[in-house]
Amino acid sequence: MPRHKTLPDETVLGVALQLLHTGGPEALTFAGLARASGLAAATLVQRFGSKAQLKQAALLHAWDRLDEKTSQLAADIARTPEGAVDLLVALSGDYGAIESYAEGLLILREDLRDPLLRARGARWRDALVDVLDTCLAERGGQRQGLGQLMASQWQGSLVWWGFEPNCPVADHVGRELRQFVAAVMPKRAGT
C-alpha cells in the first residue's frame, strides 16, 4: 500500500479496530497498522506512544462509536417494551456470525483489563439502561430496575446463542427478549 502523509486519527483508529476484530488483540501492532493504513510505523508510534496506548485509543474509539450508534437507535425507537426489544436487536446485528462474535469476546477481555475502558463500558451500560427503563415504564409509573434486567438478559442471550448459533443472532435475541418482556410485564386482564 502506498504511504500516506496524513490520515486523521479517527481513520487510523478505525483501521486499528479492524485489525483487532479480524486478528484479535495480538494482531494490533505498529508494523501491522502501518501496513494496513499506509502510514509509517514511526509516525504511528509518535501519535500513540506505545502499543498499549494504541490499543486503548482504538477501544475508546470503539466505545465512542457504540455510544453514537446507541444514541441514534434510541432516538428512533418507540418508548415501549417492543421498542426496547428493537433497540437491543439492532445492537446485536453488529455481531454477525459466530466467528465475529467470538473475536469480539477477545476484545471485551481487553476492555475488562483496563480501568478506563471498564469505566467507559459502565457509562454505556448506564445510558442503555436509562433508555430501556424508559421503554419499560408503565404509563404514569416507573419500572426501575427492569432496564438493567433486560440488558442482562440480552447479554446472556448472546452468550447462549454463541453455543448454538443455528439461526441469525438477531432472530435469537428478538425471540429471547420478547419472552423476557412477556414474563416480567404480563398483560393485565381487561387492558
From TrEMBL:
<keyword id="KW-0238">DNA-binding</keyword>
<dbReference type="InterPro" id="IPR009057">
    <property type="entry name" value="Homeodomain-like_sf"/>
</dbReference>
<feature type="DNA-binding region" description="H-T-H motif">
    <location>
        <begin position="29"/>
        <end position="48"/>
    </location>
</feature>
<protein>
    <submittedName>
        <fullName>Helix-turn-helix domain-containing protein</fullName>
    </submittedName>
</protein>
<dbReference type="Pfam" id="PF00440">
    <property type="entry name" value="TetR_N"/>
</dbReference>
<feature type="domain" description="HTH tetR-type">
    <location>
        <begin position="6"/>
        <end position="66"/>
    </location>
</feature>
<dbReference type="InterPro" id="IPR001647">
    <property type="entry name" value="HTH_TetR"/>
</dbReference>
